[in-house]
UniProtKB/TrEMBL annotation:
This is DUF4340 domain-containing protein.
Length: 439
């Protein structure tokens, strides 16, 4: 009897939830039907030829055995695979109807002329639009549109034969001079282990810092080939910049220098001076050289491979102190480690998970505090790392000060470098260590 009642209740619940689910699905479908549907701007499978028109500069492309090529037979600046990818992505541009867009309030980027239609691309603020013979669309996949320049296909200055020839990049601005090189400077071998680019920023901070991998990849590509188009003068409406001088030093001594002098938002291009001539360069190529400081480097306060760490001491002015100890033992080339928190052995997996919260501490911004700021700052926490590098024990200290800021601490590294650090991130770290202690 109980089983029959239970089965009946289950059946009723199933009917109830099925009905709710069907109604929810119907409501979602009705709402979806009311929303504008995304449409392709081109019949991309049918397009075999098109003309790119940017400000009257015309480039004609044709599809030849699955490869997009210039009709005049000219060589493209970027590799064939990149050409195919850019054009295929462009021809698959999609958007939703946006008839309220007024092209007079936007900036025309370029036109694509096919046998059946002309599509004009515009930018207004941070939004991108396409106008076809069928209507106006707000673009949903606009990345390629924002960086689709004829310069990629028909312009460029060859600076070196390959990236191996580059040995150093020098930067000079109105206020600072710094450089990038493979020399790790004062960093120990262990301190460079977590980083993969193999290049280091010098003279910007008080100690060298590793250049972020993808940032360095962009720099290396430009050090070989700078996509550019020679022009006579900077277009009107451009923003003149305080010049940024960039010098590529190569192993053969044939150094190359260019200076970034202006930027134009409408055409998404920088303008550079190179060998006494002026060139237009796509924004995405040159913007990496306009980055400064923390935008260039791996964004960690201080990170070490855990297998090299022997201790981390955390002393707090309020709350419990923590002493993390790691004992390493090598037997027949096999490393084994034991992990302790406040003299109590803890699980290795749990310890490694907690260490991730220590490793990812990141600077929010650079700070140059005045003497009065430092006098007013109150020490909140001190972290001391002890680690082995090349058989020697070394220590590094981080000090965190409360300056009255709601969301950040002032962090002082051992070399009197100062950064702001998120209070929330530090609290998360301390909470994870406390969880490890409680288990």
């Amino acid at each position: 009897m109980k089983k029959a009642v239970y089965m009946a209740m289950c059946s009723l619940l199933c009917v109830f939830w099925t009905g709710c689910t069907q109604k929810d699905n119907q409501d979602k479908q009705a709402a979806s039907a009311d929303e504008p549907q995304e449409e392709y701007l081109f019949p991309f499978e049918e397009v075999e030829q098109f003309t790119l028109d940017k400000g009257g500069e015309l480039l004609e492309f044709e599809l030849n055995q699955a490869n997009w090529e210039l009709e005049d037979g000219g060589a493209t600046l970027i590799e064939q695979e990149q050409v195919n990818d850019k054009i295929t992505t462009l021809l698959k541009t999609a958007g939703v109807p946006a008839e309220t867009f007024n092209p007079e309030k936007g900036t025309e980027l370029f036109k694509v002329i096919t046998a059946k239609d002309t599509v004009s691309f515009y930018k207004e603020h941070d939004d991108y639009y396409g106008i076809t013979g069928q209507g106006t669309y707000k673009l949903s996949n606009f990345d390629v549109v924002s960086d689709f320049s004829p310069i990629y296909f028909n312009g460029g200055a060859l600076l070196a034969e390959d990236t191996e020839a580059l040995r150093r990049v020098n930067f000079s601005t109105a206020t600072k001079e710094y450089f990038i090189t493979k020399d790790k400077g004062t960093l120990s071998d262990v301190e460079t282990t977590p980083f993969i680019s193999g290049w280091y920023l010098h003279d910007y901070f008080k100690t060298p810092r590793s250049v972020e991998y993808y940032t360095m990849e962009r720099i290396l590509k430009s050090a070989v080939l700078l996509p550019s188009h020679k022009i006579n003068s900077v277009p009107s409406g451009s923003d003149m910049l305080s010049p940024i001088s960039v010098v590529f030093e190569y192993v053969d001594g044939d150094d190359q220098q260019f200076s970034i002098v202006a930027y134009n938002e409408a055409v998404q291009s920088y303008f550079v001076e190179y060998q006494n001539s002026l060139y237009e360069v796509p924004k995405n190529v040159v913007s990496v050289f306009a980055k400064e400081g923390l935008q260039l480097v791996d964004r960690f306060l201080y990170i070490l491979p855990l297998d090299a760490v022997t201790a981390i001491d955390i002393q707090r002015t309020k709350g419990e102190d923590y002493h993390l100890l790691i004992e390493h033992d090598v037997t027949q080339s096999v490393l084994t480690s034991s992990f302790f928190l406040n003299d109590r052995q803890v699980d290795e997996e749990a310890f490694r998970k907690t260490y991730q919260y220590i490793a990812v501490l990141a600077p929010v911004s650079e700070i140059a505090p005045s003497e009065d700021d430092l006098k007013a700052a109150v020490l909140s926490l001190k972290m001391t790392y002890t680690f082995l590098s090349e058989g020697e024990s070394q220590t590094r200290t981080l000090l965190f000060y409360d300056t009255g800021e709601k969301n950040t601490y002032l962090c002082e590294l051992g070399s009197k470098e100062y950064f702001s650090v998120s209070k929330q991130q530090l609290d998360d770290m301390l909470n994870e260590i406390q969880k490890l202690s409680d288990n």
